[in-house]
Amino acid sequence: MSIAGQFECDVAIVGASISGCAAAALFARRGLRVVLIEQRRDSAAYKRMCTHYILPCARPTLQRLGLDARIEHKGGVRNSLAIWTRWGLIPAVDVAKKNFGYNVRRVTLDPLLRSLATETPGVEYWPGFARRDFAGGRGAWLVWKQRPLKASGVWFPRG
Ligand SMILES: Cc1cc2nc3c(=O)[nH]c(=O)nc-3n(C[C@H](O)[C@H](O)[C@H](O)COP(=O)(O)OP(=O)(O)OC[C@H]3O[C@@H](n4cnc5c(N)ncnc54)[C@H](O)[C@@H]3O)c2cc1C
Q: What is the Å distance from ligand 1's center to 132 Cα?
């Protein structure tokens, strides 16, 4: 089926927060055409029910995205992790050994990551659309309200 003015993409991602924005940027860098859909219109919107701790194990992904430098520029603090277990203490890693994550609030992180994603060539950002605006089609998902969209795949990150 072809509709006049229909926008076509390889993947539509519903939810422009941590996982949706990271995936959008990474997909687009690999050459996919991405539509990133977010129900909130405010590009500075952020998740309220969350704290600030990014685990050290997430750092390779932050580096891959180029987000680590942006976090540091915005005042994100390098952190570490020590864990008490029934077998004893797993000591904190040495920040100097570059095995660290970041403490950064979502009010800072979410807009930072959203702008990184939406600035990536190949990402088309559609704020103000919600999942309920979709009507499913055979082999495609279509937004009927304002803009018809045909996507080969649709991904709903689960927050
Ligand atoms: C109290 C609390 C503290 C936490 N602390 C930490 C922490 O310190 N460190 C840590 O790593 N994790 C923490 N987490 C977990 C962290 O918040 C989540 O893992 C993370 O936010 C998931 O990201 P996400 O992008 O999948 O979803 P979310 O950040 O939840 O984003 C979902 C996005 O989808 C959009 N959306 C939702 N429904 C629709 C729809 N129907 N149509 C269009 N858009 C839609 C939303 O507006 C939002 O932008 C905490 C969680 C809670 C509850």
A: 19
